[in-house]
Amino acid sequence: MAFSGMMAGMDEDARIARWTAGWPAVPGVLRGPGDDCALAAGPPRGCVAVLKTDSVLEGVHFTRRDPAAWVGRKALARAMSDFAATGARPVAVLAACLLPSGGKSGAYMDRAMAGMAAAARRWGIGLAGGETTRAPVLGLTASLYGWVERKTAVARSGARAGDVLCVTGQLGGSRAGHHLRFEPRLAEGQWLARGGWVRAMMDLSDGLGKDLPRLARASGLSFLIDPEKLPRRRGVDAVRAVNEGEDYELLFAVAPERIEALRRNWPFRTPWTDFGVLLPRRLKPETGGIPFRGYDHFA
Amino acid sequence: MAFSGMMAGMDEDARIARWTAGWPAVPGVLRGPGDDCALAAGPPRGCVAVLKTDSVLEGVHFTRRDPAAWVGRKALARAMSDFAATGARPVAVLAACLLPSGGKSGAYMDRAMAGMAAAARRWGIGLAGGETTRAPVLGLTASLYGWVERKTAVARSGARAGDVLCVTGQLGGSRAGHHLRFEPRLAEGQWLARGGWVRAMMDLSDGLGKDLPRLARASGLSFLIDPEKLPRRRGVDAVRAVNEGEDYELLFAVAPERIEALRRNWPFRTPWTDFGVLLPRRLKPETGGIPFRGYDHFA
Question: In 3D, which of B160, B67, B61 has the Cα closest to residue B119?
Fold first, then answer.
C-alpha cells in the first residue's frame, strides 16, 4: 500500500520516505508500504484477528500547541488502549493522514509520524501502510491489526451481577497532559485476559460516566459505585474524574470470589482499585450523587 | 468496537443503530461493532491477511451534491479496488466517520452509511466496527481486512522488461460520474492473480500518468505506451484519459508469451486492452507525446 492518495506536488516521494523511516521490522508484516495493499501474517494457531480504527483530529483530540510527536503517538496509543481492553497483541498499523496544504502542516505531520514511529518501535508494531489526503483539518486515523487467543478475548458483555468493578491507574486530569502521555495498559490487559481474571473489560476513552453505563448495558446489568473509592489524580474531584474523559485506563469486572487472589497475584506496578459492583438490571444505577453523563443513554 | 468516539448529544445510540443496520452477516466477522475491538477469522490455510485503508473527504473526493449513498459506496469501493489489484478477498471493514455538527450532515452521513451497507451486502463484506469524530469536514475512512493466497498475491514490483502493459475498462471521464459509480474489478483481479497471469498489478486511482510510473519504478523498469491504443471513454482525449484520475481500473503487466492465451481464456465481460510495454530502466519513458502529470486535486 502506498502512502499515495491525492497529494499534489513533487515532494510526495520525499514525504513518504520520511514517514516510513524509523519503523521497526516486524515479522508479522509480510509486505509493508509501497503496494496497493499490505500483507500480514495470519494469527497463530488458536488465535483470531483483531481490528480497531481510531482517529485523532485537530481541535477535537489535540491542538497545534501540543507537541506533534506526542500527537502521533496518541493516534497509535488510542487504538492500543482498545487492544489492551481485549487482551490482544498488536502487530501492524495503517496510518491515514489528513493534511492541510501550506503553512506548517507538513512539518507538523512529519514530526507526528516520527512520534508514531518512535512509539511503534517501543511497542514492536510494524507499519503496514497508509494514505494521505489533503484536508481542511489535520488528522490521523490509525487502523490497528493484531491477534488474540480466541478463548481469552475479553468483551464488554461478560459481566454478571455481583462482579466487582475495578479500574487501573487514576482518573481525571487528562486535559492537563494525560490525554497525550497516557500509557496504554497493554501488558496489564493481556495478563488479565490470559489469566481469565476478568469477565468484562473496556478502556475508558469517554470517561467512566459514559463508559461504565456502556459496559453495564452490554452485560445486561446495572451498577453501584462508591465515589469515595474512585482513584483520582491530584486536584481532581469525583465529578471531573468521572466525566472528563480520555483516561485510557482499563475498566474491568472481576468475580467477587477472585478479587483477593487478583490482588495477591497482580504483577504490575500499575495500581488498580475496586470502586463498585455490578447489579441486576432491575435496580437503578447508583452513582453516589455523582452526575454520569452517560446516565440518560442508560435509562 | 463501538461507534463511539467523541460525540455529543442524546441521539448517539439511535445513530449507531442506523449505521450498523443492513449489513450482511459474514462468517469471517466473529465479533462486530459494540466492543473495544472487532474479532475476525484468520486467513484460511495457505493465505495471509490483507489490509488497506482509504478515505473519502468532502471537497476532495465528493461534494454534497453527490448522492450520499454513492459516497458511502465509494469509500468502500476505493479500498475494494486495491484488494482487486492484490487479488485479495475482502472480509470486513472498519468505518471511521468525520461528522460536522449541525446542518444536514447527520442525515447525509446516515444515507452514506446506508449506501456503504448496501454495497457491502452485494459484495459480502461484514461490518467489523467503526468510530465517529466531530470534525469541520465530512469524511469516511474505510479500513478493509481480508485474505489472499500467499503464493498468488500480486505486487507492483514483479514486472520484467518486455512485459505487456494492459488495463481493464476505459480511462477518463471520472468527474462526469465514474468516480462514484465505478465497479471495483474484484473478480477480474482475483482471477488474474490466481491464474498467475500477471507479474505486477495495481489499481489506477491517481491516473495512468501518475500510477504507471509508480508500477515501473517499483519493478525497476521504464515503459513505452502507444497513446492510440489507450482505451478511452467517449469524448475523452488521450491527455485526459492519462491524467484525469479516479479510473479505478486494473493496470497489469503480462509476460509477452502469455498475452494471446490470456486473450483466449479471459472469462469476463469487462474488456482489457494492451497499450504498451515495460522497458529496461536505462531507457527513457516514452509516452507518445502525452504529458504524464497524474492527478492533482488542488491544481
Answer: B67
